[in-house]
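Exercise 3.2. Students should predict the tertiary structure of the chain below and write it as C-alpha cells, then compare their answer with the key that follows.

Predict this chain's 3D structure.
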Amino acid sequence: MTQKLFDLNDPNFDPTVRLPNSNQSFASIRSQNLIYVDKTRFIYALARDNKPKFISRPRRFGKSTLVSTLEELFAHGIKGYDGHDSYFKGLEIEKLWQDEKVYKIMRLSFSEINYETKSAAEFKLSFIKTLDSFAKLFEIEIPDNLDTIAKRFAYLLSKLEDHSLVLLVDEYDAPLTSRIDLNSQDYQDIVKIIQGFYGIIKEWGHKFRCVFITGITRYKDAALFTAGNSVKDLSQDPRFGEICGYTLDEIKNNFKEQILFSTAQAFNLKLEEVTTADQEKLLDKLAFWYDGYCFDQAGLTHVFSTWSVLQFFADPLGCFDNYWYNSGGQPKILQKAFLGGDVVKTLNDLAQEKLAVSLSHFINPSSLIAMDRKVLLFQTGYLTLAKAYRGRGDSLSEINQVQLKFPNHETISSFKKLLGDFIFNNHEEEQDIFSIYRVKFIQALLNHSQENLINVFNTVINTVDCFHFPIKEESMLSALLAIFMMSCGAKISVSEHQASGILDTKVSYQDTTLVIEYKFLRDKEKLSDKLQTAVTQIVTKEYGNTLHNLNPWRLAIVYSQAQRKIVASQEV
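Answer key:
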C-alpha cells in the first residue's frame, strides 16, 4: 500500500487531510491511506512468542494504535481479506511474519470499562458485562452462579483451546488512577478485582497466544509487577525506546508535505519560496517544543510527542502550542499527589535543571499513594530520563540514583499551568485567573507599577483554595505567588542562596528583574516594624545590587495572616 504524495501545485493541496489521530486504529489509518509511521518491527518483536508483555507510556503517545495493530495482525494476519489488500502490505513486518493462523481476540479497554462508573460495584458489573460479551462472541455460556470476574474469566478460558486467545489490555490502570481517594475502601476493592483478573492470566497462561498490556503508571498495587509475576515490563527496554512517539528521521521521512506546508505558514512564505534551511529551522523549533522524551534506560534513543506533532502539523497557521496538556496532560492522579504534598518543597525541587530520584523508588514504586512525585511526573509524561541509568556491563549495585528532567518547552510550560490549575480556583462560571491577570501582571512588572502588582497578587491570593493550601507561613505565600508568576511565563528563583543571605524570590521577565523580600504579619505584631525589617534586609544584604544591567526592581512586601492579603509594600 503506497502513500501517494500531494501535488504541491494543486490548488486543493491540503497536507492535513492525511494526518491520523493519535488514538486512531491501525486498520482505519491504513484503509483511509492516512500517514502511518511504520512501527511493525516492534509489533513483530512483541508478537513472535506468547510471553506476556507490558509497556507504559504517557497519554496520547499512540498506545491505542499500537494495541490495534496487534489486534489486526492476529485477527487477519498479513494477507488481504474482504476484497482489499493486507493492511500490512509494504510494511517491515510483511517480510518477518510467518504465523498464518488467525486467533480469537479479547481486547479490553479499561478506560472504557471504567467509564462513568462511580464505585467498585459498578466497575465490577461493567467488567462482567464486557467479559460476557466476549463469551457470547466465542459461543461460550458462562453459568450465572459464577459471581466474580476471576471465576467468570477462568471459566471462559477453560473452554478455549491452548494458545488460541490473544489478550490485549489497554490502559490497565485507568480504574485506579481515576480514583482520587486512594485510601478509600472503594479503591481497595478495585485493586482486589484487578489482582484477581491478573491472577487468572498467570494461572491460565497456556491458553494465550499473546498477552500485551499498556498503561500510564507502573506500581505494585495492581499486582502486575509483584514478585513471581510472569509479565515482562519492556517500558524502558532500549530495544523498544522508539515504539511510541516519533523520531526525527521518522518525521522527516513521513511528513514531508506537512513540514513544507508548516514552514511556509510559520515563516509567512509561499510554498515555492521555502528552502531546505527554512525547513531545518522549523524542525529545530519543533524539537525545542516537542522532542526530548527518553524511555530508554541506556539513554540511546529519544522521541517527539506523537499527539503534539500531529496537532502542530494540523494547525493551519503553523502555531506552536501546548497541545498535549489539554488532551492528556492532566491525569487526575496528579491532583492527589500535589494536593497532599508540600508545595514549597515541590517548587524548589522542580526549579532544578535536573532532578534525582532513588533507583529503587524509580524502578519499583510500591503504590500510587507512596510514589515519589517526581516518579509520578515521569510516568505521566512531564519528566523524562536525563541520562542513562543502566549501560553495558554496569553493576546495578553501584547505581543508586536516576536523573530526570523536563524533556522540552511544552512540558515545562505545561507543568507551570498544571500547578496553577491545581492551586488556584478556576470555576466554570468564572474566567480563568491566568488569562485575566497574566497581562496585568506582565504590565505591572515591566512598568514597575507597585500598586498594580500588589492588586494582582491580592486577587491571586483570594483565589487560592485555603483548605488545601492554607497560607500559614511566609514560605507558602512565596511559593503560591511564584507558581502564579511562573504560569505567566516569568523565570522564578525561590529561596536563592546569595553571599549575604537567602533571597526570598527573584523574578525575571524580558529585561526586568524583580527582587521580593516577604514578611509575614501575625497577630499582635506591628506592621511598620515588619515593613522596615524587610526594607532593611534588602538594603543591608544588598539583594539585587548586582542586577544593575537587568532593569532591577526591589520590593519589600508584608502579608497579614488575619486579613489574608498583602497590607503593605515599599519600593527600595
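Discussion points: Confidence is low (pLDDT under 50) at residues 1-6. The longest strand covers residues 512-521.
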